[in-house]
Amino acid sequence: MKIILLKDIKNLGKKGDVKEVADGYARNFLLPKSLVKIVTKKALKELEKEKELEAKKAEKELKAIQEVVSQIDGQEIGISMKLKENGEIYGSVTPYKISQALKKKGFDIKKTQISLKEPIKKLGEYPITVNFDHGLEAEVKAIVVEEVKQKS
After folding, report:
1. In 3D, which of 137, 102, 96 has the Cα closest to residue 119?
2. Which domains does the chain have, with CATH numbers?
3. DSSP labels for 31-88?
4. How far apart are the C-alpha atoms of 47 and 41, rounded to whole Å?
5. Residue 107: closest CA among 131, 72, 152, 148
6. Which CA distances in Å does 29 have to 25, 45, 63?
7. To which H or E segment does residue 28 belong?
8. Which DSSP symbol is given to 117?
9. pLDDT at 146
10. Coil, helix or strand for 20?
11. DSSP SS3 for 94
12. Which of 39, 40, 48, 144 could form a disulfide with 2 if both were Cys (CB 3.0 to 4.6 A apart)?
């Protein structure tokens, strides 16, 4: 029996795939659980329309991400940290602190999008890679400086 997958099914295929399966498997397992529908001319037309819509949506999403990447690429962010008496910083600069600094500049970047080989523990300038969907990435420069102490 030819079927169209409505969801990803392990060891069978991805959503939208057209597959040939045993009649019993389709009737007794896949159809009752609403995981598939039987192939008809109408169902194939619906599948084509759905794939076109998904392609257009992915294209729009890609353009939006490319725009954000072009805006964020090359940005410099300042991160001020308290220093110990020996000149080292308290704690470290983590992806979370970098994402917060980017949010202050108007970019909605999650900490999971920021890749650091290891947390930053010294003052200085560091290149940071920000990962986006569709395999795109941007490079940002994090400048870690000493926090200015408030005079009372």
Report:
1. 96
2. 2-63 (3.40.5.10), 70-146 (3.10.430.100)
3. TTTTSEEE--HHHHHHHHHHHHHHHHHHHHHHHHHHHHHHHHTT-EEEEEE-B-TTSP
4. 10
5. 72
6. 5, 25, 40
7. none
8. S
9. 83
10. strand
11. coil
12. 39
The identity of residue 102, as a single letter, is L
Phi (first) and psi of residue 97, to 5 degrees: -65, -35
pLDDT (0 to 100) of residue 52: 92
Residues in the chain with pLDDT < 70?
149-152
Give the residue from 63, 66, 75, 121 showing the smallest Cα distance to 94: 121
Closest CA to 30 of 17, 42, 41: 17
Question: What pLDDT is stored for residue 5 in this prediction?
Answer: 92
User: Which pLDDT score is estimated for 151?
Assistant: 57
Which amino acid makes up residue 7?
K
**pTM of the entire structure?**
0.63
d(CA 152, CA 138): 41
How far is it, in rounded angstroms, from Cα 149 to Cα 83? 10
